[in-house]
Amino acid sequence: MKIKTKLNAGVGLLFLMIIILSALGGWFIYQLKKDTQNILVANYNTLQYSRNMLLALEEIDTDSLAVAEFQKNLTLQSKNITENGEKETTQSIRNHFLNLKLDKTNTDLQSSIRKEITELMQLNMSAIQLKSSIANTTAQNAIAVVSVAGILCFLVAFILMVNLPANIANPIRELTASIHQIAQQNYRQRVRFEGNSEFGELARSFNTMAEKLQEYSESRIDKILKGKKRIETLIDNMHDAVIGIDENRKVLFVNDEALKISGLKRNNFVGQQIQDVAVTNDLIRTLIKEIIDPESKKDQPNSLKIFVEGKENYFEKDIVDINVIPTGEEESRFIGQVIMLRNITPFKELDLAKTHFIGTVSHEFKTPISSIQMGLQLLENDKIGNLNEEQQKLVKGINDDTVRLLKITGELLNLAQLETGVTQLNIRSFEINSLIQEAVNANKSVADKKKISINTHLDSQLTTMIADEEKTLWVLNNIVSNAIRYSSENSQVNINVEQFESDHIKFSVSDQGPGIEKQYLNHIFTRYFRVPGTKAEGTGLGLSISKEFIESQNGRINVESKVGKGSTFSFILKENLNKKTETI
Ligand code: ADP
């Protein structure tokens, strides 16, 4: 049965019972009222008239008004005849009263009338008794009937109260529990209330929905599994090593390449904490250093040399954080990391070949260029013979080009040595002032040509330092030469050397040149990088070599620049590189 019908029937039944109860109550009250009315009208009035007649009879022979009073009550009594025998008694009283009116002192007549009035009263008293017992019975019946009807109403109400809320609440509770299960992706959940009620319909719709969700989820899981397989195959076939870990650093997947280069077995790797694997494996230990301590990232080299199957291989390390935004949430959550080792061996081999080539070529160039320089010096010598003006100009031009060529070959040779790792530090004591003067002298002729004055300032307490003189001079020379090359005529270049943090020395070279835009400041120390639009000739190698020379001595190189105002290049070195203190 439908809930609506049940509710209608229940409430309707109660309503009907209330109506019946009210009708019964009303009917019984009416009956009781009728019985009382009967007693009042029919018998009580007769008693009243009889009493008045008796009183008038007492004074009939003395009081002239008594006859009229008797007559009035007798007339009233004649109209109020209700009981059997009352009519005859009243008629007899009337007859005797007619005779009494003629002979008022007749005591026999008086006593007959008195007796008949008493009889009349007796008759009505009995009638009152009878009617009172009828009214009593009616009242008892009323109590019984109303009680039965009341009990019936109570029973119906009680049954409804016990059944109806449970009938509605139970399915709702079951449905709520099932919805909860569905929300937790338990799509196998079904509700089981049957029947034709609204809940039955709701259950059918709910079960259909759950079935469809289950179908959808199973097809989605199938799709996800296929997608996962595809991605796993893809990762396995990659030439780069890939290791995936979750947010608790548990290894989720490892591809074949990663197993090959780490020399580990899949069973000993997947499902383990990566730090446990690192205990027995050097490569993994190196790889996860950055994960364990993110601060150490800047000290970690990005490329690694690993021996795989007896051959040198080069890899570039990349650690990617995986952050996802869960459905229904707004903030992304960290769920793990992917460690990738990109195999850059072919590029590295090509790069090394290029470096060897550059090294060989620049080395081979050095001797002929030096011979050309010597030849030029001889040509400039008056003892050999005088040159005319035209020839002098030509010799000067050749000399300038030779100097430039020598600078370039010097830079290329340095680069090749840095890349092959053959550069070695030659730490010894030298005078700082001589170093500055050498750098000034080397650049003097170019500065004079552009009418650029080079000013130097050296802290008076600074005299000597212990470092690689050749490399430090090379760097100072390079940044002074840049300052002159990139500045316009009639400007100034300042070289300032001062004490820094008690045991360090800071070399700064400031110019009034064009300055460098902020966006390029991070790139100018990268090999071959030149600020776009730079007109002066150059290779883009000087600053990168300088950086490596300074960092190889545990120093730091820096630039500050303002477009249109000029640049200041500075480098900081330890005053005594042989003295062991913490590095800067
Ligand atoms: P090169 O000078 O041979 O191009 P560097 O490595 O010495 O190579 O310099 C890299 C680039 O930085 C230069 O090409 C130039 O654009 C910029 N640069 C270097 N020094 C200065 C300077 N003092 N003023 C303005 N730009 C400079």
From TrEMBL:
It comes from Chryseobacterium formosense. It is a multi-pass membrane protein. One of its GO terms (biological process) is osmosensory signaling via phosphorelay pathway. The chain crosses the membrane at residues 7-30, 142-164. The keyword Kinase applies. PROSITE patterns: HAMP, HIS_KIN, PAS. Residues 360-577 form the Histidine kinase domain. It catalyses: ATP + protein L-histidine = ADP + protein N-phospho-L-histidine. Pfam families: HAMP, HATPase_c, HisKA, PAS. This is histidine kinase. Residues 166-218 form the HAMP domain. Its EC number is 2.7.13.3. GO terms for molecular function: ATP binding; phosphorelay response regulator activity; phosphorelay sensor kinase activity; protein kinase activator activity. GO terms for cellular component: plasma membrane. It is found in: Cell membrane; Membrane. Gene3D superfamilies: 1.10.287.130, 6.10.340.10, Histidine kinase-like ATPase, C-terminal domain, PAS domain. Keywords: ATP-binding, Cell membrane, Kinase, Membrane, Nucleotide-binding, Phosphoprotein, Transferase, Transmembrane, Transmembrane helix, Two-component regulatory system. SMART domains: HAMP, HATPase_c, HisKA, PAS. Residues 227-311 form the PAS domain.
